[in-house]
Structures are given as structure tokens and as C-alpha cells.
Write a structure and sequence with these properties.
One of its GO terms (biological process) is regulation of DNA-templated transcription. It comes from Streptomyces lincolnensis. This protein is an alpha/beta fold and 220 residues long. It has helices spanning 11-21, 36-46, 62-71, 92-98, 110-122, 129-139, 146-152, 157-167, 172-179, 183-197, 202-211; strands at 2-7, 27-33, 50-54, 79-84, 102-105. The longest helix has 15 residues, at 183-197. The radius of gyration is 17 Å and the shape is globular.
């Protein structure tokens, strides 16, 4: 059973998402919160698999709440998914850096919402990778991260190749096809790269890939 915590200051959004998710046999909404502080407390109480959290909220916003969840060892298995009104919201990259596993646009169709929750629970792939790539292309313009660049030196050639493909939004199966290896081997390369780069999940792996210069944002 996938346990979900909903955090949004709009009751209508929470009730709509709950109604959709409660229809699924393998998903359970365990609690709702109206701000980030309450969401953090409920995350510690219920230990959900997924926290769906809005970016802009009173008391504690979604980015700060995400940062606190990611920093709490007791919540290491919690995957935070950001809710945003716009696919190119300028705060989304900050949320990914804070530890979010991905993000959803609030007008997502019901089937895609359910699929996204299941994908996030697996920790298998970024949500909406095409939108994520556009956002990273637009906002990643900072100097290279020394930590990330140093970490890249520890990667094998195949691990670097796998990370670059993750940053392009490819799934494990697609990476396996591209590298002519098994999906299990692809997953192993990615997991080892995450360990070496100290990435919490694939979302942070993508950010590190861009910030280190392993992948170069495309000019729009």
C-alpha cells in the first residue's frame, strides 16, 4: 500500500486529490495538512511513502518543508513531490535542490496523477521529465558545483553515461536499451552513482549532472 500525505493550503485541491487517490486499491491518503509546518509534523507522525506538497503556503512554504523532510534521517524513505500551478514555476528547481523527488502540475489529469504517485513511490524516475529538462535548461546558470565536480571523478565511464541519460529524462528500461545492458545493470549503475555523488534520489542526480557540467543545458 502506498501511503500519501497531502499538504496544500487550498481545501478544494486536497479534497480533489484525495477523492482521486482513494479510488485506487494500492494507494491510501493517510493525512492532510494546510501548511508546511503541519505537513512536517504529520510526516513524522505517519511516515508516508509520498508527500504531495504545494510550493506556496503560509507558515512554512513547500520548499522549506521539503528541505526539513530531506534533512530528517527518520524520513529518509519519504519521497516529496512538489505541486505547482505552472510547469515552469521558478521555484521548482529550488525544490529539487531542497530534496524533492519531482513535481506535478495541479491540473494533471487523474490517470497521470495516479501513475505519478506510483512512479514516485518506486523511486524509479523523475516526474514529468520533459518539463523538468526545460526548467533546468532555463534556470541552471550558476558556477559549477565543486562538490559535484569532485564526485564525478569517482564515477566509472558507464556510471557517467547512465547519469547523463537519467538527466535526459530516460527511464531505466530506456537507459538499458541505449547502453545495450539489462535494466538491472542500468539500475545498478545509477544507484552506485547516486551513492558516490551523495544524491538522495534521481531528481538530485539530475541537478548534479547539470551543475557539474556532465550534461549541458540546451540553448532555447
Amino acid at each position: 500500500m502506498i501511503r500519501v500525505l497531502l499538504v496544500d493550503d487550498q481545501p478544494l485541491i486536497r479534497s480533489g486529490f484525495r477523492a482521486l487517490l482513494d479510488l485506487e486499491d494500492d494507494i491510501e491518503v493517510v493525512a492532510e495538512a494546510a501548511d508546511g509546518a503541519e505537513g512536517l509534523a504529520l510526516a513524522r507522525q505517519h511516515l508516508p511513502d509520498i508527500v504531495l506538497i504545494d510550493i506556496q503556503m503560509p507558515v512554512v512554504d513547500g520548499i522549506e518543508a521539503t528541505r526539513r523532510i530531506a534533512a530528517d534521517p527518520a524520513l529518509a524513505q519519504v519521497h516529496v513531490v512538489i505541486l505547482t500551478n505552472y510547469g515552469m514555476d521558478e521555484y521548482v528547481l529550488d525544490a529539487l535542490r531542497a530534496g524533492a523527488a519531482g513535481f506535478l502540475v495541479k491540473d494533471i489529469v487523474p490517470d497521470d496523477l495516479v501513475y505519478a504517485v506510483r512512479v514516485a513511490a518506486r523511486g524509479d524516475a523523475l516526474l514529468a521529465p520533459s518539463i523538468t529538462r526545460k526548467l533546468i535548461n532555463r534556470y541552471v546558470a550558476q558556477p559549477l558545483s565543486t562538490v559535484a565536480t569532485t564526485g564525478l571523478d569517482e564515477l566509472t565511464g558507464r556510471e557517467r553515461e547512465a547519469v547523463a541519460l537519467v538527466a535526459q529524462g530516460l527511464s531505466n528500461d530506456q537507459i538499458a536499451d541505449r547502453m545495450v545492458i539489462s535494466p538491472l545493470t542500468a539500475k545498478t549503475h545509477i544507484n552506485r552513482a547516486m551513492t558516490k555523488l551523495h544524491a538522495r534520489d534521481r531528481a538530485q542526480l539530475v541537478v548534479l549532472a547539470y551543475e557539474s557540467g556532465l550534461v549541458t543545458p540546451r540553448k532555447s
